[in-house]
Structure formats: structure tokens, C-alpha cells
Structure prediction request, 397 residues.
Amino acid sequence: MAKPFLAHLEKSLAAMEADGLLKREREITSPQGGHIAVGDRDLINLCANNYLGLADHPALIGAAKAAMDDHGYGMASVRFICGTQDLHRALERRLAAFLGKDDAILFAACFDANGGLFEPLLGPEDAIVSDALNHASIIDGIRLCKARRYRYANSDMDDLEAQLKAARADGARFVMIATDGVFSMDGYLARLPEIVALAERHDALVMVDDCHATGFMGPQGRGTHAHFNVADKVDILTGTLGKALGGAIGGYIAGPQAVIGMLRQRARPYLFSNSLPPAVVAAGIAAIDLVEKADDLRTQLFGNTAHWRAGLTDLGFELLPGEHPIVPVMLGEARLAQDMAAALFEQGVYVSGFFFPVVPKGKARIRTQMNAALSRGDLDTALGAFERAGKATGVLS
Prediction:
């Protein structure tokens, strides 16, 4: 490898570090949970996507162990060759029934699901109208598709309608609206009732990425489309097993049978990636069984969210408004977000700073996330740590 190329990379990494933009990984030595261990330290964990606290649940671990005994460790194949077990189809049918769709298709991750969704379904005669704050996987999936691209300002329904009109004026055959159900950096919910109303008005399809909603938003945790009572008006759902549904890995798309059928034939991440291992699939089925009956966990989760939000507000932190368990603490600059996260680590609280390019420059933050496994005692201890760290870093006066 050419030395000038490596020197260029080293210089770029040094510049990231100087600007406070270098991401570092800490090695966790325990299962994921409300408390985690880093080395010999016990820390309150406020930054996992483990919304219902199921990542170390005995029922999921038991299902995974049993599946390895019955179905082996891995498939060593893609689905259409010899990589489909009865477990894969059982989970796909279970997801479809849970979400109220005809069928579902599994991927290695939701990034792959979103990356593989658009290209098989839409061509150059078609159009995709995408929210400006959509997840990177949606953006990348749209880039891989030859459909014309239109973008509307985050949750701006006037702009969405203007882009739908523009797509129709440009002669689009089919139009698809693409949106996150929950915008993960901010915790904002998409305005689905208004989105589906505009879709009906302009004869458009609606696709929703519900990664940060499945399992805990809406009745029985069925997601934002159920939360807003528009389940029959959202055409395609994408989501993950890697957050509230056990926190492992794996993504899916759920929708009409014809859509799922075409994706099985043409979605490149599905056709050219190994099947999910049996342990993950079996635990996914067990997770849905738990989630449907987990009203107690959802009550705990949203009670924690309200308590946490009120506590941070009383201390004087700047928060983004919302109802979701994602509660961003706005700090502005990347260096300050890094310093605040480091100070909290010393106080026994595990969080991560978020900064460019994950969020816009000048919008750095610590994205705290609530979890049903956290007690009120944990939250009060963490609030004390936030107060001390805030004062030490100058965030609080």
C-alpha cells in the first residue's frame, strides 16, 4: 500500500482527534443491561437501544441455546441456496402477524433491509420523497435506486406536499414516501397521520423505518403505525431485531405479499448475505412473544422517561422536546460532548457523545436513552452525576 495514502489517512485521523471528532470504543465485560461492567467498574448504562431490557433476558438466552442444539450454529449459505430453515420462515410469519402485514423478509441488519428495499421495487420512471433527517441506511438505499429523488424538510408537511406535487408534475409513475417512524438522533416521531393523508391525496406509497419504535410504541409495542392508528395505511415497514426485540442483530421488511415476493427475488443484500444464525432467529421469536405481553415493561419505560426528562429539565439542561425514550441533552460542540461523556464515565454513568457527521456541526449532544431495566434509584443517581459533570464542564452554572 502506497505510503502517501497511509500518511493521508493518518493526517486525517489526527485532525479528527484535534477537533474532538474521534470516536473511541470502550470494552464492556458484561452482558448488555441497565448496568454494565467496563473492566472492574459497574456503570449505569444510559445509551443502549435496549429499551425493554431484554438483551440479557433468560427466555431469549434459553431460546438461543436450544436453537443451537436443534438447528446448529450457522447456515453457511444464503437463503435461496440452502440457508432457509423452518425457524427463518417461522420468524418471518411471526413478524408479519405482529405488524399486521402479509409477509416479512429477514436481513442481516436493518441497514441491509433499507439498503435493499428501493432498487428492486422502483425504477427511473418512479420517485422517492424522503425526509431530510432519515437514517443513513435509507439515504444509501435510495442512492442505489434509479428512481428520482426528492427531499422534504424534517416533518414539514407543506414541503412534503410540495415535493409530492413536483414528483407528479415530473411524470413519476409510482411515488413512495420514505420516513423514519422515530428520528433516532432527536427522538421525534414522524407525523404519520398527516403523511398517510398526503399519500392518499397524491396516490403515493408509504414506507416507514420503525427501528426505534418496534416493541414499545403503540398497543402491544407494534410500532408508530399502531401508535397513530394508521396501520392499514402504511404500506411497507422496516425494522430491527437489534434494539427492543432482544438487541442482537437482524433486520426485516414487512409488507404486501407482492413486495416481499419481489424482494426475495431481487434484493441484493438478501440474495448475497448469509442467513441469520438459528440462535438469533429463535430468540427473535421468543422476543416477540414477550413483547406482546410486556405492558408492564412499557409502563416502566415511559415512567422512567418522564422522570428522567423532568429531572434533567429541573437541573437546567437543554433538551429536545418529545415523548420518546430517546432524550437528547444538547451541548453544541463536539469537544464539550466528549468532555461531558468522559466526566460522566468517571461519575459511574455510561453515555456517548454524538457529533458531526452523526449530527450537524454545532448540534453535538449526549443522546440518553431510557430502559425498562433501570430503577428510579438508578435514574436519581444518574441525575446527580449529570449535575456534577455539568458543573465541572461548565454546561451548568
Observations:
- The mean pLDDT is 97.
- The chain has 15 helices and 15 strands.
- The CA atoms of residues 341 and 352 lie 6 Å apart.
